[in-house]
Amino acid sequence: MESGFSDNAAVSIGGGRTIDGGLLVFTFVRSSGPGGQNVNKRATKAQLRVGVEDLGLPMMAAVRFRKIAGGAITRDDELLISCDTTRSQGRNRQGCLDQLRAMVNESLVVPKKRKKTKPTRGSVERRIGEKKRRGEIKKRRGSSGED
Questions:
Q1: 1-53 per-position pLDDT tens digit
Q2: Which helix (H) or strand (E) element contains residue 131?
Q3: What is the pLDDT of residue 42?
Q4: Which domain holds residue 21?
Q5: Is residue 55 in a domain?
Q6: pTM given for the model
Q7: Close Cβ partners of 141 (under 8 Å, ≥ 6 residues apart)
Q8: pLDDT tens-digit series, residues 91-130
Q9: Using CA atoms, how far apart are residues 5 and 23, in angstroms rounded to an integer?
């Protein structure tokens, strides 16, 4: 069973961004795990497919998005998210959208550049002084030099 999202309405994907619901392709399949007879009758596992380019992310954010998504990106540059945590199609669909929003929000965060810092003279002296003290302690553990 395949379906686009409800009537091509705009769907919020996080970061103040929206996407046409028709670009989100949901497939529902039978879920695994416990659920009694219901698991054999109902297709409640939701799978979301959406093209990475369709998300409209800036170039660097799209690069970060692909890295975050990892193996969830197909050869056709589509994101594939599955959710079968509940026994409800609607809640599993919402779970897929929540995962998508989290990934988009994470990809939009620009990582801070690391600034190189130099240790202070005092911290270097303290470190070397402690190393010398430890060395003296270890030296005194040895034999007293008498053979």
A1: 555 555 567 787 777 778 888 888 888 888 776 666 666 777 888 888 988 88
A2: helix 121-141
A3: 76
A4: 2-108
A5: yes
A6: 0.67
A7: none
A8: 988 999 899 889 888 988 998 999 999 999 999 999 999 9
A9: 8
Encoded amino acid at 65, one letter: F
- Euclidean distance between CA atoms 118 and 44, whole angstroms: 56
The C-alpha atoms of residue 101 and residue 136 are separated, in whole angstroms, by: 58
CA atoms of 130 and 101, how far apart (whole Å) = 50
Structurally, how many domains does the chain consist of?
A: 1
Residue 41 corresponds to which tokens in the numbers above?
A: 């009758």
Task: For the beta carbon of residue 123, count every other beta carbon within 10 angstroms.
Answer: 10
Q: Facing residues of 3 across strands?
A: 26
CATH of the domain at 14: 3.30.160.20
In a domain, 61, yes or no: yes
Closest CA to 3 of 54, 38, 46, 39: 46
